[in-house]
Design goal:
By secondary structure, this protein is mainly α. The protein has helices at residues 2-63, 69-73, 86-117, 122-135, 139-153, 160-184, 188-196, 201-229, 233-238, 259-268, 275-309. The protein folds into two domains: 2-64; 67-309, MetI-like fold (Orthogonal Bundle), CATH 1.10.3720.
Length: 314
């Protein structure tokens, strides 16, 4: 009996050791897979950053020598070398400002309505589906729509106001979705605490939800603005490919070629001898402008958020 008991104990001990070895192998295999996945993700991130860095370095290397004061402020020409892009630079920001002026109240208001007021029914589902569908429409289709409606039907011609109105159609669906999703990410106890303290629905939105959701909204605005600055198809059909005035002039009925449109024009149609240098300079100018634009947007939004929520907010 004692020998039988000893053999049973030895057998159980061996099974325990084998089970421990299997567990160690599983843990080791899991760690190796985790390290492999982490390495692949790091490699993917480094590859993306490398491609972006190479892209930016190449553009700046080609374009920075062209960025002189005469290039930034001078008038453009179809045949004369050494011309500038002053009017196109002004038009890019002027049209962007007008398009945001038209689209931001509608888009942010629509996003707040869908997130805080609208009920879950077929109408709101239809609105969301329409918004998402409009966001996927190619820009050239919106350009043709703007040409039919604003340029021809309303008789605006190739003008800054027609380009800004059409460009706002590109901005609105993206901003609506960003605003709605950002408000939905705010924890529900923020609303409950504000309402429990006696605040109204609008006070809760303005004083609590909006400051909390502001960084996400500003991120959406900067991405949309960056896309709008580089948009060309819409503005070719609505704002035109010429500059019909001398600066400074805020006439919204004048034609307004932008930087992105000017790149297309000089490379596809223009006869200017140094068109490659002009295109490189405009590309570098757009990259620098968008980077500075994003920086100028993000810092005030952080300051406003801290002011609205208190100095201890992060």
């Amino acid at each position: 009996m004692e020998r039988y008991a000893e053999s049973e104990l030895n057998l159980e001990g061996k099974e325990t050791v084998l089970e421990m070895k299997r567990m160690v192998k599983k843990v080791t295999k899991a760690r190796l897979l985790d390290q492999l996945a982490r390495g692949i993700l790091w490699l993917s991130g480094a590859l993306i950053l490398g491609i972006l860095a190479a892209f930016l370095i190449y553009i700046l290397y080609k374009g920075l020598p062209v960025l002189t004061w005469n290039f930034l402020t001078g008038a453009s020409s179809d045949i004369r070398a050494g011309s500038g892009v002053g009017a196109q630079f002004f038009n890019s920001f002027y049209i962007l400002f007008l398009s945001m002026l038209f689209s931001l109240p509608v888009a942010i208001g629509g996003g707040i309505y869908l997130a805080e007021y609208a009920k879950n029914n077929r109408l709101t589902d239809l609105i969301r589906l329409s918004t998402e569908s409009l966001a996927t429409v190619p820009s050239i289709v919106l350009g043709l729509f703007g040409m039919i409606i604003f340029v021809n039907f309303f008789g605006m011609g190739f003008s800054i106001i027609g380009g800004a109105l059409t460009l706002s159609l590109l901005n609105i669906p993206v901003l609506v979705r960003v605003t709605e999703e950002t408000f939905r990410t705010v924890p529900s106890y923020y609303r409950e605490a504000s309402l429990a303290l006696g605040a109204t629905k609008w006070q809760t939105i303005w004083k609590v939800l909006l400051p909390t959701a502001l960084p996400g909204i500003v991120t959406g605005i900067t991405l949309t603005a960056g896309r709008a600055l580089g948009e060309s198809a819409i503005l070719i059909f609505t704002a035109g490919t010429t500059v019909s005035r001398q600066l400074p002039d805020f006439d919204v009925t004048a034609a307004g070629e932008t930087l992105a449109v000017h790149i297309w024009y000089v490379m596809a149609v223009g006869l200017v001898p140094d068109r490659v240098d002009i295109a490189n300079g405009i590309a570098a100018l757009l990259v620098i402008t968008i980077l500075l634009f994003n920086l100028c947007f993000m810092l005030p939004s952080r300051w406003f958020q801290r002011k609205m929520l208190g100095s201890n907010s992060r």
